[in-house]
Design goal:
This protein is of the alpha+beta class and about 120 residues long. It has a single domain, classed as Alpha-Beta Plaits, CATH 3.30.70. It is built from 2 helices and 6 strands. The strands form 2 sheets. The protein has a 4-stranded antiparallel beta sheet. It has a two-stranded antiparallel ribbon with strand order 3-4. The longest helix has 18 residues. It is globular.
C-alpha cells in the first residue's frame, strides 16, 4: 500500500537546516530506496515562493506568497510503498528521530495518509 507523509513544522530554530540533518535524511532515504520502500521524497521551497488557489462562493482566486502568518508549514513529503500503516509509522518515527538528533529545537509533526489505489506494486 502506498502512503504519503507530510512534514508539518511548528518550530524552526533557524532558516537553514543543519548539514547533519541532510546527511541523516540522505542515509535514511538511501536505505529506504534500496529496499524499495521509498517511492519519492522532497523538501518544499519557502511558502513565500508559492501561491494559494482557492474556490469559495463560486469564484476562483489566487494569492501569491507571502501569506498571512502561518504557525504550521508543510516543509516536505515522502511517498512510501509499505505493507501497512504500522510500517509507515515506524519510518516516520525514524525520520523524526533524525530531526531530534541533529536539529535541536525543531518541532513538528508528520501526517501519514494512505493513498487511493495504493495496492502493493
Amino acid at each position: 500500500m502506498k502512503f504519503m507523509t507530510m512534514v508539518h513544522e511548528t518550530n524552526r530554530p533557524s532558516d537553514q537546516p543543519p548539514a547533519e540533518l541532510f546527511a541523516a535524511i540522505g542515509a535514511l532515504q538511501a536505505e529506504e530506496s534500496a529496499s524499495g520502500a521509498l517511492v519519492e521524497a522532497g523538501g518544499l521551497m519557502p511558502i513565500e515562493s508559492g501561491a494559494v488557489v482557492r474556490l469559495a462562493g463560486g469564484a476562483v482566486t489566487t494569492t501569491d506568497g507571502p501569506f498571512v502568518e502561518t504557525k504550521e508549514l508543510v516543509g516536505g513529503y515522502a511517498v512510501y510503498d509499505l505493507p501497512d500503516l504500522g510500517a509507515a509509522v515506524a519510518k516516520t518515527e525514524e525520520f523524526l528521530a533524525a530531526h531530534r538528533n541533529t536539529w535541536p529545537g525543531w518541532e513538528g509533526w508528520v501526517e501519514i495518509r494512505p493513498m487511493f489505489g495504493g495496492a502493493p506494486d
